[in-house]
Amino acid sequence: MIQNQFExxxxxxxxxxxxxxxxxxxxxxxxxxxxxxxxxxxKELKETITSxxxxxxxxxxxxxxxxxxxxxxxxxxxxxxxxxxxxxxxxYDGITSGYEVCxxxxx
Length: 107
Ligand SMILES: [Zn+2]
Hints:
about 110 residues; alpha+beta; four-stranded mixed β-sheet; binds zinc ion
């Protein structure tokens, strides 16, 4: 009888371990899915931040002595003497001030 009891205990332990392993496997799969979702969220967040940074980085500028409006990252914009540099709130503002639009702003 004692032998039998022992056997039953061992069987019970194994079955519990088995179900624990299944449970853990299931949890790992759920966590892997969450990690994947977080990675996707993180990617979208990075893209949003990058596009926001790009908006902030680009200013519409022109030289007082020039004729064209430039994106502040344009090679021509970088040649503008800071003393002559004008910054506009928008391309429209620049055009109404009499400036033409450089290709750098239409791309
Ligand atoms: Zn330009």
